[in-house]
Known about the structure:
The complex is a heterodimer of chains A (309) and B (491).
Chain A: E1 6-11, E2 15-20, E3 25-31, E4 39-42, E5 48-52, E6 54-61, E7 71-85, E8 91-96, E9 100-105, E10 115-118, E11 123-128, E12 134-139, E13 144-148, E14 154-157, E15 165-170, E16 176-181, E17 185-192, E18 201-209, E19 215-220, E20 226-231, E21 235-240, E22 245-251, E23 258-263, E24 269-274, E25 278-283, E26 291-294, E27 300-306
Antiparallel strand pairs in A: 1-2, 1-27, 2-3, 4-5, 5-6, 6-7, 7-8, 8-9, 9-10, 11-12, 12-13, 13-14, 15-16, 16-17, 17-18, 19-20, 20-21, 21-22, 23-24, 24-25, 25-26
Chain B: H1 7-21, H2 26-32, H3 36-42, H4 44-47, H5 51-69, H6 89-103, E1 105-108, H7 136-147, E2 168-175, E3 185-190, H8 195-208, E4 222-226, E5 253-258, E6 275-281, E7 286-291, H9 298-309, E8 316-320, E9 323-327, E10 341-346, H10 354-363, H11 369-372, E11 377-384, E12 391-398, E13 403-408, E14 423-426, E15 430-439, E16 442-450, E17 456-464, H12 465-481, H13 485-490
Parallel strand pairs in B: 2-5, 6-10
Antiparallel strand pairs in B: 2-3, 4-5, 6-7, 8-9, 8-10, 11-12, 11-17, 12-13, 13-14, 15-16, 16-17
Helix pairs in contact in B: 1-2, 1-5
Amino acid sequence: MDQGIVLVTGGYDHSLKFWYPHDGVCYRTIPHPDSQVNQLAITPDKRCLVSAAYQQIRMYDIKSSDQTPVYVFEGMTKNVTSVGFYDNGQFMYSGGEDCMARIWDLRGSNQQCQRLFQVSSPVNCMCLHPNQATLIVGDQSGTVHVWDLTTDYNEQLIPEPEVSIHSVHIDPDGAYLAAVNSKGICYVWSLTSSGSTQPITLTPRTKTASHKKYALKCVFSPDSSLLATTSADGTCKVWSTADFSLRNTLKREADKWVWDCAFSCDSQYIFTAASDHVARLWHVEQSSPIREYQGHSKAITSIAYSDRQ
Amino acid sequence: MAAFDDKKMLLAHIRHSFVTSDDTGMCELIMIKEDVEQEIENDHSYQKKSLRMQQRYKQAEKRSTNNMAASYDIQASPTLSRRPPLKNTSDMFQIMEKKKASRVRTVQWEITPLELVDRSLFAPQPIRPHPTGPSPLKQLLAEQDKKKSNPFYKYSKFNGENHGPASSNKFLMFLSMAKDPLYPVEVTVLHTATIQDLVGVTFWKYYEEGRKPFYLKGIESYAVMIADDDGEIDTDLPELQGDDYISKFGFKYLGIVERSNPDDVKIEDVPAKYKIVKVYYENGGFSTIAISEDDVEMSEILARVIRKRRLQIHGYELEKKDSPGEFINLRSSLSSQGTLDFMLVRNTRQGHTPSSSVEDDVDSPDVGTEVTSHLYTSFSVTMLHRMRSNTRVQLGIDPQRERVEIQPIESLKGFLAKPLKPMKYDINEISSVDILEEKPPNAVFRIVRLTKEGSVKNIDFEAPHNITKKIVAKLKLIISDSPSSIKSKQK
């Protein structure tokens, strides 16, 4: 799109779809053979899209019409569940069911600086602190690992043992860490760092029973004022970070799992991906969707959106 | 060249040639016939050849002729095809896929030893302030919302204007309820659209073009029918099913009409420039003809209907729909008729041109040559039943074969409805035909039939008065001419 907007969805129908967000038209479909799409991420320069797949991470050129990936990252033995980028685009992190969190060096072909962090359970989710120096890893045993990349020091938080953590996210201001688990509980910690070289410290802030069923995703808005959580109860809830009170509930009649969500850069709009094969665009203040993106034949489990200028 | 009468030499040559130059498959046939050599050996004429030639051949044989024939390079194809095998398309695709796949670069995971990791690359960085400013999405949505004022916006996704002919179809749609029914809307629709979506896209396009809007009901109230290139909608053909995909149909010109009640198209709604004339047919259905001239002769309308229905030029007349039985003078003008609804009827008088018979028909509709004619004539009448609803039938009178045929036009509806079968009665079975009662403008007549078993059966019909008169007169004439023992029995 000429405005530099990229909206991509993927899921269980083994395809990736690119959409015009304003009119709901799908303008490109890429087959995603042999694997469902576990997560999608867009590089900071908006040139490439990566999909976390079974045993692979595939990187596609967003501008080209080629249906094959440009790069395929291999070496994982199980599903890759999480993928993301450093702000400078030089490193990519990934986590998977092989209980590993990896850092991939994208600077050249030599791969001079690749790092591995092993945990005891399959990795469900990862996120990078905005200071680019700390990785948060959530796993199936209910542990949140805080991996300081500078010192290689790590610490664990276990909000509730053996309750799988499904999503972790740090707000762009670096003030809060949110994590949601299988019981639909959303934990929020305050993050503080005494100095740039000191590791961050986490202080529990709130514990909210945000959903009745599995919580699947938590995402802070780019302006850090909102937190969105999605769940198997068919809702996406928008919370205010000022007091972590519920601001809005986005729900359709169909009680289908809402797997993923993404904010627009002005924090006014939110995209959701659901099991009813439809992705939706909502205004954070309104209770009905503005647009619907129909075309997938199975559940949409991942959505990636970028309109960052 | 002298060796061309040497069979073994030829055989060797053929075997060599097969590898490179055989398009015909003949060499292949020779190749697999293993006993060819033995046949040559046994050939007496060959044995008489000079010793010198045989020696020359044996030398050549040593140089691998036979070896070549048994070589793995030479393999007869199992099909004995007459043309060399084509390169398999799927093989080609596989090669292309491989080429594509070879462009995909694979990055294998390798861990860097911890001591070699440059940790300064992961040093904490100051948190960048979040860029403020509106999202381009907001503007795009606002622009899109403006476009959404079109009430048929949701169908715009089927608009295939930018998708090329491979995935879309182009149609010219005539909207019978629009202010300008003869000016079509050109739409390009994706193959994935159904007929109902096509209606939606057409209405969407109509609004997008800024044409004068008209009151529209829901999409479901409209039917798509086949039209001619001049905008005439063939209402006598069935409508296209709403849930069929448009890719199923190859028509270029289609019309949209209101399904529920086609009479809703009021004549006064159409600008004075156009007049919509409706011509109904005896067996149901109607055609609409748009007249753009100020006034036309009725003969022109008849000619257009005949052309449209591809009927024979002669043998048809027009009647006013509200006064059946009276043929219209085809030289009179449309404006003098006082109506725009007409009926196309068969002029059953053979050998008369419509224009010359008009005056006769109007003046004396009940006396015609067809009464005395010996040709087969048929009339559209209503068959009356006592216990059931009435049925439209075609009553055919065949004087030559001396029989009356009853052919149902429509099936019976309702409780206890048994399908009416076509019936044929011998004239000899019919004892009398009489007009029972007058129901202006119609009349009821009865055919009394004496069956072979000896029972009397009555069949009642209703038809316009003049047609009744014709039928009764004609049947009476035939009955009176026919020497019938049944009749005498009845008497």
